Every structure is written in structure tokens, then in C-alpha cells.
């Protein structure tokens, strides 16, 4: 059975095996601050297939989700990437957060808050092709914020519900998993849902839940859910979900040389390396 590799010579008797590796790179989702906010944007979602060389080390960086805060500028998600000396670095940008007045741009953008200007922020920032994410929705005065953007869909305006944008399904592991959903908006009523792919649900203004939306799901890049008008003193808002990097390596070429303790599994003729923390792979 052919795995599509070739041997390139480097001097007498030398050579390096070159083989194709599929990659999924999802950044951390954005975090929240303040109250009556939009949902946070999902981490950027990117895929790539590149040629790896035997004996060469490739650095894997997995970005964390933006930490929740009680006030000030929201924390964005942290970028994830795969880099090596002989490949083009692929980097996904962290998701944008949201606060009372506005969302922030990122891999996917945060939703706008309940009060002015209330505009959702741009996704796919910085710009990639294909796009790594979508914009957040707009807030609505007196009701709540807009949903955070997701990998497959923009966040909803609050006038249309304020749900987080849907993430994108990927089967690189051998089974379909959805990543990079936007966070649902916070507000004074209703419970806007997070987008499929780890987006947190927004808070609906019920005092008993202390005004805090749900955190984005770990290792999906999901955006944090927005906060309500009942935020309590000393309670930070929701955090974004951490990102993930997955490599799909032909088993015939797999070296087993890694750092960072990725989860290793087999799918057909391929070895799957799932990184939930930073590390490396040597071809």
C-alpha cells in the first residue's frame, strides 16, 4: 500500500523520507469581562496538509482560553500553531472577548454588548484563506449582547436570539468532532446557547447563578458565554476553552518521537497525535 512518500538524497548515501501530514490547529476561545455582554468569539480554526521530513523537529503550540475577568479589557484566546524549519508555519488566532459595550476581533469575533456601541467584532483577524472564523453579533439595548462568532457561522444579533455561531465538524481523528463554537450572549432575559463546538451558554439574568456565563469547553477553542446584569462582586466572568492541535501521520512513517505527551491513537493506516498542551514531533 502506498502512503505517497518519496526519498530525497542529500549527498552520498544520505537521504530523508518526505511524507504528507494532515493538521488541525484550533486556538483558544476568548474570555469575558463586565456584565450584560456579548458572547466571546471562538478560537481560530485552520487545517493544512504539509510535507514533513524524517529527522526534522516540528514545534506544536496549543493556546489557552482567555481567562475570565470581573472588569477591564477582556482577555483574548491564545494562538495555536505548528512550525518547522522546512514548512510554512500555520497559526490560528485566539478568539476575541467581549465586555459591556463592545466585542473584540480575533480568530472569531466577540459579540457586542448591551450598551453602545454594541457592535460585534470582526472574525478572521488576521485574515487567512480559507477564513479561520466569523464575526460576533450585535447587542440590543435593554435586552443583551450578541453571540460570539464561530468557525462556521457568525454570532447572532441579540434581536435574533444572541446564540453563538456554530463551529466546524472535522474527522481527522477518524470520528467527527465539532470545534470552535462561539459563546452565547448574556443579558437580562433568555439563555442564548453557545455554538456547537464548545461555545458556552450565556447567563440569563437569574440572581442565583451570579451572572456568570458558562466557560468554553476545554480543547475545543469554544468562546465563553456572556454575563448578565446580576454579576456579583468578586465573581470573574467566564473563560474561553483551550485550543487543540492534531496531527495525522502515516503509520508507516511515524517516528514515535514526541514531547508534550500527546494522546496517540490509530485510525486505519494513520497514527493520530492529539496535543492538548504544547510540545513537538520529530519526523
Decide which structural class fits the backbone.
Answer: mainly beta
Q: Give the topology string: H per helix, E per strand.
A: EEEEEEEEEEEEE
| Total number of strands | 13
Beta-strand fraction estimate: 15-25%
- Put simply, the count of helices is 0
What is the radius of gyration? Answer: 20 Å
Q: Looking at the structure, what is the overall shape?
A: elongated
Helix share of residues? Answer: under 10%
Largest β-sheet summary: 6 strands, antiparallel
Q: Brief description of this entry?
A:
By secondary structure, the protein is mostly beta strands.
Keywords:
single chain, 283 residues, mainly beta, 6-stranded antiparallel beta sheet, elongated, disordered N terminus
Question: What would you say this structure looks like, in words?
Answer:
The chain is an all-beta fold and 283 residues long. The strands form 3 sheets. Strands 1, 2, 3, 9, 11 and 12 form a 6-stranded antiparallel β-sheet that branches. Strands 6-5-4-13-10 form a 5-stranded antiparallel β-sheet, with no helix packed on it. It is elongated. The N terminus is likely disordered.
List the helices and strands and how they pair.
Elements: E1 6-8, E2 16-26, E3 45-53, E4 57-61, E5 80-84, E6 90-92, E7 168-170, E8 177-179, E9 244-250, E10 257-259, E11 263-267, E12 270-275, E13 279-282
Antiparallel strand pairs: 1-2, 2-3, 2-9, 4-5, 4-13, 5-6, 7-8, 9-12, 10-13, 11-12
Amino acid at each position: 500500500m502506498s502512503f505517497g512518500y518519496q526519498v530525497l538524497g542529500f549527498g552520498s548515501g544520505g537521504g530523508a523520507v518526505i511524507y504528507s501530514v494532515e493538521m488541525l490547529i484550533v486556538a483558544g476561545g476568548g474570555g469575558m469581562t463586565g456584565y450584560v455582554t456579548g458572547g466571546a468569539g471562538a478560537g481560530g480554526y485552520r487545517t493544512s496538509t504539509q510535507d514533513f521530513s524524517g529527522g526534522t523537529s516540528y514545534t506544536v503550540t496549543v493556546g489557552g482560553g482567555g481567562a475570565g475577568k470581573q472588569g477591564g479589557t477582556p482577555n483574548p484566546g491564545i494562538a495555536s500553531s505548528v512550525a518547522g524549519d522546512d514548512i510554512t508555519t500555520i497559526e490560528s488566532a485566539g478568539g476575541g472577548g467581549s465586555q459591556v459595550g463592545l466585542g473584540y476581533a480575533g480568530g472569531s469575533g466577540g459579540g457586542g454588548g448591551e450598551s453602545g456601541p454594541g457592535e460585534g467584532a470582526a472574525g478572521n483577524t488576521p485574515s487567512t484563506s480559507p477564513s479561520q472564523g466569523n464575526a460576533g453579533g450585535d447587542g440590543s439595548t435593554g435586552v443583551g449582547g450578541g453571540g460570539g462568532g464561530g468557525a462556521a457561522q457568525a454570532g447572532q444579533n441579540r434581536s435574533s436570539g444572541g446564540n453563538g455561531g456554530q463551529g466546524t465538524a472535522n474527522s481527522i481523528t477518524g470520528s467527527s468532532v465539532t470545534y470552535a463554537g462561539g459563546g452565547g450572549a448574556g443579558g437580562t432575559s433568555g439563555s442564548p446557547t453557545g455554538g456547537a463546538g464548545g461555545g458556552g451558554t450565556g447567563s440569563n439574568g437569574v440572581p442565583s447563578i451570579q451572572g456568570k456565563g458558562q466557560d468554553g469547553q476545554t480543547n475545543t477553542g469554544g468562546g465563553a458565554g456572556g454575563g448578565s446584569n446580576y454579576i456579583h462582586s468578586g465573581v470573574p466572568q467566564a473563560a474561553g476553552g483551550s485550543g487543540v492541535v492534531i496531527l495525522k501521520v502515516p503509520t508507516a512513517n511515524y517516528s514515535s518521537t514526541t514531547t508534550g505527551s500527546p494522546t496517540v491513537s490509530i485510525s486505519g493506516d494513520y497514527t493520530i497525535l492529539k496535543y492538548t498542551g504544547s510540545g513537538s514531533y520529530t519526523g
